[in-house]
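Quiz preparation item.
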């Protein structure tokens, strides 16, 4: 488990709504907050349709988020504006109904308009800010060396510096987050060779040296358990496990700091699942990767993850360390998920009691509304006041 307390990714009140009518939305992700520390594996679990994949895609900016904020390396890379617009509309409605005076209404409107302006600025300039940081880093590293060098060595350093500066100007912060997609065949272009698929990110980033690209591609292929000869083949010529390895190679060639693994083993046989999980473990140790691991299989998540977040119907219902979650599951849905884990033991399976989760029967939120609360250090649960008191008694 990672002992590093540096937060690499922070998600605050993330909402991702999809419009299905004039004034109707599907709340795929609704007010989800968590952080991922550098070097750890954060597991995200839940049933199909609960919003796990949408959360991952929103973080990597495949979707424009509805509201909330996503911070990566301390820079806000995504910001939604719906909550600010709703606050402005509510203030105007409250003014009409006489609930607030005009001065208070003007204050709320000015505050939220400023927040909208900041959100637009942060989203537009996050890559520019990161590029500026990389340029300053290159200058501080190369300029003193170039000033002290002479002859051929100086010319070599100047050429390197020029190449690094060109890449720094083209770089984007979001490229430090890469994704391994759920369906390997759907995420690989059937008209591109494996070499072209894996090298595409490097070329977009500004790498022009063909030998450097080829050497990097071959290195990645061998790293994920494939061979150089595979570089000239097409995706349809590989098995499911091999295609997933190509997806892994495509993500790590960019030398990312965070990988979002979206159910990378769900479509694979059990033996191949173990190979891919062990591969990710080895890459984590070799490159110091931080991984957000999205999956259904809780036994796999427990083996691989340092912390686990449980999602249900677009909301985060429980978040805790892996061992703590399995030892003290508090939310009824988490208990239901854990009761569904099978074991290769006929006697245990015969006696295993399956817990069915029915939210209408399990909770009464008609008056006392729930919120995400900390029961003990690092263990958060979605609950109301009555449930909070009951959970605290259970823990004691």
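Solution:
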């Amino acid at each position: 488990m990672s002992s590093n307390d540096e937060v690499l990714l922070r998600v605050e009140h993330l909402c991702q709504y999809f419009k299905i009518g004039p004034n109707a939305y599907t709340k795929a992700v609704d007010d989800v907050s968590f952080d991922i520390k550098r070097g750890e594996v954060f597991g995200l679990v839940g049933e199909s349709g609960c919003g796990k994949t949408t959360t991952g895609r929103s973080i990597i900016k495949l979707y424009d988020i509805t509201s909330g904020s996503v911070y990566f390396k301390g820079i806000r890379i995504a910001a939604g504006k719906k909550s600010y617009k709703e606050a402005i509309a509510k203030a105007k409605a409250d003014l009409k109904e006489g609930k607030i005076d005009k001065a208070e209404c003007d204050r709320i409107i000015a505050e939220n308009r400023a927040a909208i302006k900041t959100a637009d600025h942060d989203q537009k300039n996050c890559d520019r800010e990161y590029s500026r940081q990389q340029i300053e880093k290159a200058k501080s590293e190369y300029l003193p060396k170039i000033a002290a060098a002479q002859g051929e060595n100086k010319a070599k350093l100047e050429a390197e510096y020029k190449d690094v500066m060109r890449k720094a100007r083209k770089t984007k912060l979001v490229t430090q987050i890469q994704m391994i997609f759920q369906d390997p065949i759907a995420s690989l272009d059937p008209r591109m060779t494996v070499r072209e698929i894996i090298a595409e990110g490097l070329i977009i980033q500004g790498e022009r040296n063909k030998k450097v690209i080829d050497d990097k591609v071959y290195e990645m292929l061998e790293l994920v358990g494939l061979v150089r000869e595979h570089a000239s083949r097409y995706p349809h010529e590989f098995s499911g496990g091999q295609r997933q390895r190509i997806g892994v190679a495509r993500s790590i060639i960019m030398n990312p700091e965070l990988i979002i693994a979206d159910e990378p083993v769900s479509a694979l046989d059990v033996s191949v699942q173990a190979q891919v999980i062990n591969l990710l473990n080895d890459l984590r140790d070799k490159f110091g990767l931080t991984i957000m691991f999205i999956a259904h299989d809780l036994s796999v998540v427990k083996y691989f993850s340092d912390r686990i977040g449980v999602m249900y119907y677009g909301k985060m219902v429980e978040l805790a360390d892996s061992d703590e979650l399995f030892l003290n599951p508090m939310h009824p849905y988490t208990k239901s998920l854990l009761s569904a884990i099978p074991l290769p033991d006929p006697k245990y399976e015969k006696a295993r009691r399956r817990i069915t989760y029915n939210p209408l029967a399990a909770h009464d939120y008609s008056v006392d509304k729930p919120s995400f609360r900390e029961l003990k250090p690092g263990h958060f649960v979605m609950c109301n006041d009555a449930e909070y008191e009951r959970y605290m008694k259970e823990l004691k």
